User: Which sequence fits this backbone?
């Protein structure tokens, strides 16, 4: 395996592993948030804002994984 192929493989693994956890976290956050709103519709405003904020933080982790993958590929 050449060095270029190893870089591409490492970048693919980095983005794959780095994308799985945030995807699961966002799905779990959305499911639990909708469940909480379904149980207590009056508290939707208090639930929705922290839920969206947590989703943004989880998405930031996926963006960090993308940056690492790009660094691996191009450096």
Assistant:
């Amino acid at each position: 395996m050449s060095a270029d192929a190893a870089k591409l493989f490492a970048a693919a693994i980095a983005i794959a592993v780095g994308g799985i956890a945030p995807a699961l976290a966002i799905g779990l956050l959305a499911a639990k948030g909708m469940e909480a709103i379904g149980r207590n519709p009056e508290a939707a405003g208090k639930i929705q804002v922290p839920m969206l904020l947590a989703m943004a933080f989880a998405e930031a982790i996926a963006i960090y994984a993308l940056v690492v993958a790009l660094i691996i590929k191009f450096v």
Observations:
- The chain has a mean pLDDT of 93.
- The radius of gyration is 17 Å.
- The domain at 3-74 is CATH 1.20.20.10 (F1FO ATP Synthase).
